[in-house]
Amino acid sequence: MERALVVQGGIPLRGELRVNPAKNSALKIMVASLLTPEPVTLNEVPRLRDVDVMLELLSHLGTRYAWEGHTLHLHTPEIKNTEAPRELVDKMRASFIVLGALLGRVGEAIVPMPGGCQFGPRPVDQHLKALTRLGAEIKEENGFFHARQTRKPSGRVVFDMPTLGGTEQALLAAALGGEATLVNVAQEPEIEDLCHFLQMLGVEIQGIGSSILRVRGKDRLGGGSYGIIPDRIEAGTFLLMTAATRGKITLTHVNPQHMDALLDKLAQSGHHLETGPDWVRLEATPHPLPFSVEAREYPGFATDLQPLIAAYLATVPGTSTVADRVYPDRFGYVGELARMGADASRKEGVLLVSGKTLMGASVKAADIRAGGALILAALAAEGESRIEGMQYVERGYEKLPARLQALGARVGFEQPALALAAD
User: Fold this and answer.
1) Of the listed 45, 51, 117, 381, which one is catalytic?
2) Model's pTM, two decimal places?
3) 218-228 confidence digits (pLDDT tens)
4) Residue 415 burial (CB < 10 Å; 0-12/13-18/19+)?
């Protein structure tokens, strides 16, 4: 039974917090471990529902795994199944890239259309284009993609637009014995992290961090131990929550350069920021200023922080605007924010936000970051809020209530009502 989170608002967050490794990077690197028959160790992997789903899928395909605290050991001596179960891929869009990994390792795969959070069309055409350019033959039957590698995975792929999933598919498909040039690739830190992991396995990659990657695979890849980058989305979540509650926080184990766009907006809003090689400190101003923001491809403002920055701006006096070039329809959370008194409405694809004092209310999250946004609003609001849909939040944030409590927040899961004993 899913429990609701109860939040007593109006308390500034204060303290120091260590940021967890990036979920979005860990998931892709876990898939990349399918490419090698050698053991792989990933240090400090977040213990999240999405990670559990991915492990269930990898285990079905042939991976053995073991946990030691937050250290994850993976070993795939052989691929035992080349078909990914629909019930697992439906739960999480990130699992779709097993298509490229299976093509790379054994030259064939059957993978269903991906599921996961729903906020507008999320086509996979660039994924299929990349794999086809690299020699795969792909047919769709009854919602499943049947793929077969017809030649050495080599060629030149020019993406129509930067795409995380398409870039990842091409990297995985070419890693074993391939030779590829990838043009107009996604440049997110998570792509860099995947490239560095593949380099550890033995793949040669040039141009990491740029829009063009040159990949030279090896016939056999090795293993090793690897540390995942810090989670820039989790870090951004805590910074925005602190700004919304007008508090003060120091984040450690973080890469400030991965958050340039967010830090720039927080400074524009009037908050005092300091950064070091692996830390960020924010001291909120009591009188923040409104601004306009558009989510776009990295190094632009991250779409995963778009719902959270909208919730923050709902607490800032004045008029702000929020747009999302990556997922233009990612505004399903606005109706729930309105229950807390937020003044926000869409006009021609842009969210207009007039900041004011929010009031506690009962709301429901429909995806990971919408849930983060509602918790942020509840922390800033006057009175008590009740947030349902925490099963989505737990897909992306590890032990979020306890971490907020460590910063002084009054939050906790609702205690289930006890049934009356029969006479």
Assistant:
1) 117
2) 0.95
3) 999 999 999 99
4) exposed
